[in-house]
UniProtKB/TrEMBL annotation, chain A:
Keywords attached to this entry: Cell membrane, Membrane, Phosphate transport, Transmembrane, Transmembrane helix, Transport
Annotated ranges, domain ABC transmembrane type-1: 131-343
Keyword Hydrolase: no
Coiled-coil segments on the chain, per record: none
Top-level taxon of origin: Archaea
Record-given protein name: Phosphate transport system permease protein
Location, primary (coarse class): membrane
Subcellular location field: Cell membrane
GO molecular function annotations of the record: phosphate transmembrane transporter activity
InterPro entries in the cross-refs: MetI-like, MetI-like_sf, Phosphate_PstC, Phosphate_Transport_Permease
GO cellular component terms, semicolon-separated: plasma membrane
GO term, biological process aspect, one: phosphate ion transport
Lipid bilayer topology: Multi-pass membrane protein
From TrEMBL, chain B:
Occurrences of domain ABC transmembrane type-1 (ranges): 280-504
Record NCBIfam families: 3a0107s02c
TM region positions: 20-40, 52-78, 90-113, 119-138, 150-171, 183-204, 216-239, 276-305, 325-345, 351-368, 399-420, 490-511
UniProt similarity note: Belongs to the binding-protein-dependent transport system permease family. CysTW subfamily.
Main location: membrane
Organism: Natrinema gari JCM 14663
Residues spanning the signal sequence: none
Membrane topology field: Multi-pass membrane protein
Keywords linked to the UniProt accession: Cell membrane, Membrane, Transmembrane, Transmembrane helix, Transport
Protein name from the UniProt record: Phosphate transport system permease protein PstA
GO biological process, alphabetically ordered: phosphate ion transmembrane transport
GO MF: phosphate transmembrane transporter activity
Pfam families named among the record's database cross-references: BPD_transp_1 (PF00528)
Length: 358, 517
């Protein structure tokens, strides 16, 4: 590519109308410097600071002389950076997880017999018990957060008088803010003892407590997202129904909820994502046994979740063991990302539908 | 059966009908609350109310409520009172009660006859199906009262006759757990109280669509009340447990100045009062670093996506990416920092790595909230500015961003509240000594050197504690005398996080009021 072509392209990209060569040169220098520092950082070079300083200098000069163009370029860079973080996370998780997956093959996700997690000597890494633990806690959590969350969302958006809503809505938001480690600490010091005392459990920690606590933590997510979905149902649809002489509840049940159904399910999916990714509560409450519960539905036993496995073992892990933990991270990441994309797809479809209806 | 067209009159008889129904609702709410206090061990099996032990009292109430429901159901059915009951109860209510039937039938089978899991699930399914279809075709006044009333009679009978008393237990052969009466009775009582309250609320409005609305609103309202109760109880509980430790050795008052050693000291041998000062400083620096990283990038990206870019595939991809980043579990961020940042920042856990990871976590939230508030700036503002002949950037800088700032600030504050409490990433990339004596001194450690990278800051590259990590350290160190230390830390952490939330929410309310003036 000739220099003039490059200039043309840069002009197009940055939207510079007048043929101002100094701006184009500036952009090229800045881009080169930034690229240089990114590459230097990736290979871990101590010279990262040099190109970075060059970039900062270019930006400073640009802001002084060509503010509009530089600002636009910077916002574009910020956008790219946001996307790049997700890409970097994906790449680094997979690179680190690769050795363990290569060593164990598919057995990592299918081995269900014998000892499934041996970190010394003849190493065996099967994620099945952790996946099962995550599944059980997530199902328990959603049994709580799903119905209660949707009911809470209905209350806030449709039923509560204004004054009550002004209290309940911030309260739910605040509930979302309570750090997971605080829940975990309460679970660890109070609930574990309570369960051992009252249910004669042989060991401290059980899936059912984790499910309960995580359900409580996923609840505010479900409430806020479902509330957004429910209140986005056009007022005209509701008033049409009310004008036919139905009660408020009949309108909610027959018009509002069906119209908001996809949005509400997106909310539940997001809640599932939160529940799957919840780390600290599971880590401090569970007793960390990498075995399948016996029988499988025994929710009072100890097993492990994907998140608590990583948090409890990263400190003692090395080489393949660490890589196996990254494989657990990959499973988590992929599941939650798929859930997130699915819920966004559903939400977008709902918006299009509602716009079509009105 | 009463007809749909019938309207309720203000006859004295209806008054009585209403009173029975409201009595049922009131009684069941009392047992509901008592159930919770028993579960939390505030009331116990030995608590006596009006000469009755607690469980007998539960039983008596359920017998009364059950009879009340049955009587009112029959009374409405035979037309003794005019109600607006529908011809059929309908499949929705049928399904709901069917699920209750499934649970009750299955549990009863396995408890009474020791049938295994598969067998009891099958029996439960049969019971559930029978209840569902039965209730669905019954007239509404019977369908909504009879199953619940009968259940109330049965459970009340078990409690009053002492068939289920304080010493009762059930030990399922396949599980390690043993279910004792002090847990089972309150749980069953809470569940049944809800059912009875729902049924009573339907009766109170004379069935029909009004009745169903009343029943549903009662449950939904209780749920909202429950969420607030959970929040308040959690906060009060942590305050009650943590306050003594927080104020240990604290001095304030006239002439004394203010000193709270728990907040201003580290952990040292031979020190009278140990504290969490290093963790507080660590959290402050982590938050500052994360905000410095995430806010400029986040607002920049939001400006580009909303003001410059054409809405199309590119913006859709970035939006999806941002939302995916927002829901990525914190432990995954931790792993990423462990693999990517730690090796590049001197190969040891460091504050700087923690700042970056928390910044990455904060970033999607800043992008999302900034986009929302930039979008909500009316186009008239932009047009008016453009009409003055200034370019797009000047419009953004002087008109759009200032108008969007309240929303952005609120979003950032709420996001900071969230990351200040994050533990998992800190655990992987920042944590060092569990109980440090000294706080990192960032400002005092900047040095300029002749070789790249020219600026050095030892403190930034060293491991540090943070409030959530401090709490985790208490847990892993083993519970004992340190538990009080943990509660104190939990209280401070909660105060910090909830403080951010309170400021965020208050500023949102303030800006909204100002906008509507």
């Amino acid at each position: 590519m000739s220099t003039t072509e490059l200039h043309e392209q840069l002009k197009d990209r940055l939207g510079v109308e007048s043929a101002d060569d100094s701006v184009v040169t500036l952009g090229a220098v800045g881009a080169l410097c930034l690229l240089g520092s990114a590459v230097a950082f990736l290979i871990g070079s101590p010279f990262t600071a040099l190109p970075l300083a060059g970039f900062l200098f270019t930006v400073g000069y640009g802001l002084w002389n060509h503010q509009a163009t530089t600002a636009k370029a910077l916002t574009f860079l910020a956008t790219i950076a946001t996307g790049a973080i997700l890409a970097l996370i994906t790449v680094y998780l997979i690179i680190e997880a690769f050795p363990a997956i290569r060593e164990m093959g598919l057995a990592m996700f299918t081995k269900t017999s014998g000892r499934m997690w041996i970190t010394r000597g003849e190493e065996v890494y099967s994620l099945v018990p952790m996946m099962w633990g995550t599944l059980v806690t997530t199902v328990l959590a959603m049994l709580i957060a799903g119905p209660l969350g949707v009911a809470g969302a209905l209350f806030i958006s449709e039923i509560a008088p204004d004054a009550v809503r002004e209290i309940v809505k911030p309260a739910v938001e605040t509930l979302a803010g309570i750090p997971s480690i605080v829940y975990g600490f309460i679970g660890f010091t109070i609930l574990n003892d309570y369960m051992m005392e009252n249910l004669d459990l042989p060991s401290s920690g059980s899936l059912v407590i984790v499910g309960l606590v995580v359900g409580l933590m996923a609840l505010p997510t479900v409430v806020s997202v479902a509330e957004d979905a429910i209140s986005s149902v056009p007022e005209s649809m509701k008033s049409g129904s009310l004008a036919l002489g139905t009660t408020d509840w009949q309108t909610i049940k027959n018009i509002t909820l069906p119209a908001a159904f996809s949005g509400v399910s997106a909310a539940v999916l997001l809640g599932v994502g939160r529940a799957i990714g919840e780390t600290m509560a599971a880590t401090v409450i569970l007793g960390h046994a990498q075995v399948l519960p016996e029988p499988l539905y025994d929710v009072f036993g100890n097993t492990e979740t994907l998140t608590s496995l990583i948090a409890s073992q990263y400190g003692v892990a090395s080489s393949t063991h660490m890589s196996a933990l990254f494989a657990a991270g990959v499973v988590l990441f992929v599941t939650v990302t798929v859930l997130s994309i699915a819920s966004q797809y559903i939400e977008r479809r709902m918006q299009i539908q509602l716009q079509g209806d009105t | 059966m009463s007809e749909q067209t019938a309207t309720r009159t203000a006859a004295p008889a209806v008054d009585l009908f209403d009173r029975i129904a409201l009595g049922v609702v009131g009684l069941s709410i009392v047992t509901f609350l008592l159930g919770w206090t028993t579960l939390f061990e505030r009331t116990g099996t030995d608590t006596a109310v009006a000469g009755l032990s607690l469980f007998t009292l539960f039983g008596a109430v359920f017998l009364l409520a059950g009879i009340g429901l049955l009587v009112s159901g029959i009374a409405s059915y035979v037309g003794a009172f005019e109600t607006t009951a529908d011809r059929y109860t309908g499949i929705g209510t049928g399904l709901g009660l069917g699920i209750v039937g499934f649970a009750v039938g299955g549990l009863a089978t396995t408890i009474l006859f020791g049938v295994g899991a598969t067998g009891s699930v099958l029996v439960g399914l049969v019971v559930g199906l029978v209840v569902t279809s039965g209730v669905a075709v019954l007239p509404e006044d019977l369908g909504t009262t009879f199953p619940v009333g009968l259940l109330g009679l049965a459970w009340g009978g078990l409690l009053v006759t002492g068939a289920v008393d304080a010493g009762w237990f059930w030990n399922p052969p396949s599980l390690d757990a043993t279910f004792h009466a002090p847990i089972v009775v309150p749980l069953a009582t809470i569940a049944l109280s809800l059912l009875i309250a729902w049924s009573g609320a339907i009766v109170a409005e004379g069935f029909g669509s009004q009745g169903r609305q009343n029943g549903a609103y009662l449950l939904i309202g209780l749920n909202a009340f429950g969420m607030i109760a959970v929040l308040l109880l959690l906060i009060l509980f942590v305050v009650q447990k943590g306050l003594p430790k927080l104020l240990e050795g604290a001095q304030f008052g006239p002439g004394l100045g203010i000193s709270v050693p728990f907040l201003t000291k580290g952990v040292m041998l031979g020190q009278q009062y140990n504290g969490i000062f290093p963790a507080i400083v660590g959290t402050i620096w982590l938050v500052i670093g994360a905000v410095l990283l995430a806010v400029p990038i986040g607002i920049g990206a939001a400006v580009f996506l909303t003001e410059y870019a054409e809405q199309g595939r590119f913006t859709a991809i970035i939006e999806t990416t941002t939302n995916a980043l927002w829901s990525t579990p914190s432990i995954v961020y931790g792993l990423f920092g462990y693999a990517f940042l730690v090796p590049r920042f001197g190969n040891s856990n460091s504050l700087l790595a923690g700042m970056f990871v928390l910044g990455f976590m904060l970033l999607p939230l800043v992008v999302i909230t900034s986009r929302e508030s930039i979008k909500s700036v009316p186009d008239e503002y932009r047009d008016a500015s453009a009409a003055l002949g200034v370019n797009q950037w000047q419009t953004i800088r002087s008109v759009v961003l200032p108008a969007a700032m309240p929303g952005v600030v609120t979003g950032v504050i709420l996001g900071v509240g969230r990351i200040a409490g994050e533990t998992a990433p800190i655990l992987l990339v920042t944590s060092g000594q569990p109980f440090p004596a000294r706080a990192p001194s960032i400002l005092g450690s900047f040095r300029f050197v002749a070789t790249p990278p020219f600026v050095q800051n030892e403190a930034l590259l060293q491991a540090s504690s943070a409030l959530p990590y401090q709490l985790y350290a208490v847990i892993t160190a083993g519970v004992g005398q340190e538990e009080a230390f943990g509660w104190g830390t939990a209280l401070v952490l909660l105060l910090v996080v909830l403080g951010f939330y309170a400021i965020g929410i208050a500023s949102r309310i303030y800006f909204r009021r100002k906008l509507h003036q």
